[in-house]
Design goal:
With 591 residues, the chain is of the alpha+beta class. The protein has a seven-stranded antiparallel β-sheet with strand order 8-10-6-2-4-3-9, with no helix packed on it. It has a seven-stranded mixed β-sheet with strand order 21-22-23-24-28-25-29, with helices on one face. A five-stranded mixed β-sheet has the order 20-19-30-31-32, with helices on one face. Strand 15 (274-279) and strand 16 (288-296) form a beta hairpin. The chain is globular and about 75 Å long. The termini are far apart. Bound molecules: fe (ii) ion (2 copies). The site of one fe (ii) ion (FE2) has 6 residues, from loops.
Length: 591
């Protein structure tokens, strides 16, 4: 019966597509459509069936309005004159977007190339008015299609307005133009003369995920429940008088509170948490969770607090505790890691470090906390392997390239962590920020966001601070043997020189390197003259034959280290250690 019905629908749909050469308008968006389709798939299919669905079966399951939305609402805009739209589709993509031929696009014999892909060129002429285009496909084919547009009458000036998605960037179609914002070094090498000079619509490879259904579904080993979990501390404000606490619950819980009290006393205070629904549509066993975030302020300086999180409706967490920053001395320590990539190895290292150095004030990670930043199961794994450490000690991270995805940003990272919103105005909040702990300024910089747009903010931070110690943390290492980050060296190194940054902490290359003091890209003798640049990694490394780095004071290709830094007045005692507690590198800076 089901087969017959499917066949009838297919026959009917093919009639529609062959008769009706352009899809009619619909108010449904691609996102709404995909939400509804996924909901239906969860209702109709067993988990193991979700992994078997293919292109033609998916098309057979769409109702006419859904089909219209997916055929017209991915990219649309208005033109003031008749145009020819050229659509460049990667030849390696297996399934043709279902709407392409049926909406009147015809394959030409032209080819557009970059160093990575060859694109066939499809064309269609449109009248003045609305141009509507459909999804890239139900696969996750990352070299998504891109388009160029030219007026049919060469004497008419083409105006393109009302573009969806908003914020469209245009380039001139020609060799040398880039097409993907998240890989803008990938430029076109071959463009047919007919297309040169047209308006090129740039895009991001993340758009391949918008309609992803084939081989798309994931499972988290750590689904949410009514009981609060994933409790983590951080600071959005002053570490001496405030604390931020985040946790999650499943959707049966609709409010969150923190009960907290000075350890050893009975007087309980209450803070109400903000609540945000987080969706990972393709996480089949835990699509929605509630993220709770509470800000505790007016705390007493140098005081130990105990707390529990929960709600009137559900269970409460076990009691944990934290300490506010003390006054009157200039002594504290912290621990930081390079890339952690949600690894159990790193989790073990963290627990070891926590036991060995119970008095640290906080932890930091220099980016690549996870491997796929928009997969919530990655974050579940990351928090799981960290045990309960961050229930007791704040975590102040920076994002790496793996914490965002294909130009779609690091929104999951931003939703999970509560971090200061005092970064550069040009950036989305919490990605770059600064905080002060005792006599040290920490510049926490998102190096995956544009370098130049953050320089003014970095300079302001360094110029205006009266902190004795100045540290920066950002993911890409300006000094390493694998990738040339001359842009960072030139743009930020100059500021680090001018305002004497004591140390820059990075990751990304998965090996350990601690530089000698560097000023103006040259090694100098004394720490008072230059900045120490460190790369570390919190998971096993695999660098065996490392070319020489003349600026290096210490190196290690095997990785899996953590850094303990103690500031005692004018003295910094730096140690890098492994999971057995072996000291692998150390040095001291005396002011
Ligand atoms: Fe990494
Ligand atoms: Fe990285």
């Amino acid at each position: 019966m089901r087969i017959k019905l499917t066949f009838t629908i297919l026959f009917f749909m093919s009639l529609i597509s062959s008769c009706d050469r352009s899809y009619r308008s619909t108010s449904l968006t691609v996102e709404e459509t995909m939400d509804a389709i996924v909901t239906r798939l969860y209702e109709d299919l067993l988990p193991e069936q979700l992994d078997t669905i293919g292109n033609s079966w998916i098309i057979s399951q769409l109702d006419p309005e859904e089909k219209q939305a997916l055929a017209t609402k991915y990219l649309y805009f208005k033109v003031n004159t008749p145009v020819r739209v050229s659509l460049m589709r990667d030849q390696k993509q297996k399934d043709l977007p279902f709407w392409l031929e049926s909406s009147g696009f015809a394959l030409t014999d032209m080819v557009v190339r970059n160093a990575h892909s060859s694109y066939e060129v499809w064309q269609k002429d449109f009248e003045t008015g609305l141009v509507e285009l459909g999804i890239n496909g139900f696969d996750k084919h990352r070299p998504v299609y891109f388009i160029s547009v030219g007026a049919l009458d060469p004497d008419r000036k083409l105006e393109i307005t009302s573009v969806f998605p908003e914020g469209q960037h245009f380039e001139r179609m020609a060799p040398g133009a880039f097409t993907y914002h998240d890989w803008d070094e990938l430029t076109l090498e071959e463009v047919p003369d007919e297309l040169v000079g047209q308006v090129l619509f740039t895009t991001i490879r993340g758009r391949a995920r918008e309609a992803h259904l084939m081989g798309a579904f994931r499972t988290t080993p750590f689904p949410s429940g009514a009981e609060p979990d994933q409790i983590m501390l951080s600071w959005t404000g002053d570490p001496s008088t405030s604390m931020d606490i985040r946790w999650r619950c499943n959707s049966s819980v609709s409010e969150g509170r923190v009960k907290y009290w000075e350890s050893g006393t009975e007087d309980t205070l209450l803070a109400v948490a903000k609540m945000d629904l987080m969706e990972d549509r393709l996480l089949q066993n835990d699509r929605y969770v509630y993220c709770f975030a509470a800000h505790l302020d007016q705390l007493r300086v140098g005081t130990s607090y105990s707390y529990r999180v929960g709600s009137e409706q559900g269970p409460w967490s076990a009691t944990a505790s934290f300490q506010t920053e003390s006054e009157g001395d200039d002594n504290f320590s912290f621990i930081w890691f390079g890339d952690t990539h949600k690894s159990k190895h790193w989790g073990d290292l963290l627990l070891h470090a926590y036991e060995k150095f119970p008095d640290v004030a906080f932890y930091s990670i220099a980016g690549d906390l996870v491997s796929t930043g928009l997969h919530r199961d990655d974050w579940d794994q990351f928090i799981h392997v960290s045990g309960a450490v961050f229930q007791y000690k704040p975590l102040m991270p920076v994002p790496g390239n793996h914490d965002s995805q294909d130009g779609l940003g690091a929104w999951m990272y931003q939703d999970i962590f509560s971090l200061p919103e005092n970064g550069p105005e040009e950036l989305s909040p919490e990605l770059s920020y600064s905080f002060r702990y005792k006599n040290a300024l920490f510049l926490m910089i998102d190096v995956t966001s544009p370098i130049e747009s953050q320089s003014r903010w970095i300079e302001e931070q360094l110029r205006s601070t009266d902190a004795r110690w100045k540290f920066a943390m950002f993911h890409f290492p300006p000094y390493n043997f694998e990738e040339d980050y001359s842009g960072i060296r030139k743009e930020w190194g100059r500021l680090f020189d001018t305002y004497h940054l004591d140390m820059a902490m990075s990751g990304h290359t998965h090996y350990y390197m601690r530089s000698l003091p560097i000023y103006n890209e040259e090694v100098l003798e004394h720490h008072s003259q230059g900045t120490v640049y460190v790369i570390s990694v919190g998971i096993p490394g695999n660098h065996k034959n490392m070319p020489e780095e003349e600026y290096a004071g210490a190196r290690d290709g095997q990785g899996w280290l953590y850094q303990h830094m103690e500031i005692d007045g004018d003295r910094l005692i730096y140690k890098s250690l492994d999971i057995k507690g072996n000291l692998r590198d150390e040095f001291v800076i005396e002011k």
